[in-house]
Amino acid sequence: MSVYTSSCPASACSGDDVFVVERLACVPRDPEFTRAMVRPPRPALAELVGTVDDREAIATAHIGHGYSLRQIATHLGCSVTTVHRRIHDRAQGPGSSPVHGAGGTKKT
Known about the structure:
108 residues; mainly alpha
């Protein structure tokens, strides 16, 4: 059961998550309310990400559900840099390794 308590359109809508998502889709965009205020409920981080090695899940939690790198890192017990690298590595594709020394040639 989701219950919103803030003073936004979502506060007028309570019920199970499916109902809330359907109702929020009908709310017209109003500049008074930020997108975060009318965002449907997001799944718990524990449901999205299980291990540090699951790059896709980490990226989905961050990009798709709006969890910060700090929140994900705290949940996984690793550094923010590690989470950032997992997302960046995922964007390069499977099996690819970072290119070292890609900054150009050193002039002497």
